[in-house]
Design brief:
Helices cover about 55% and strands about 10% of the residues. By secondary structure, the protein is mainly alpha-helical. A two-stranded antiparallel sheet has the order 1-2. The longest helix has 12 residues.
């Protein structure tokens, strides 16, 4: 699997632009993995793992209600 840091570097080479400083900061952030019981650097996570973490962090119903301004009638 490809790590996020490697994917960002690959994108940098393909589009020939500098990696934005905020992206470098995000890559160096630490995420606590409950399954591994340790902190993992975001840049060291593989894409699938990052997508799963992102998916778990979203509360779809709450997000939908906030964005669309509708009630719990869904």
């Amino acid at each position: 699997m490809m790590k996020i840091g490697n994917l960002v570097q690959l994108q940098h080479m393909v589009i020939d632009r500098k990696v934005p400083c905020d992206v470098e900061e995000i890559l160096n952030m630490q995420y606590y993995s409950m399954s591994k019981n340790e902190f993992i650097r975001v840049g060291d996570m593989d894409l699938v793992h990052l997508l799963r973490v992102f998916n778990m962090s979203i509360d779809y119903k709450e997000h939908y209600n906030i964005e669309k301004g509708i009630s719990d009638e869904i």
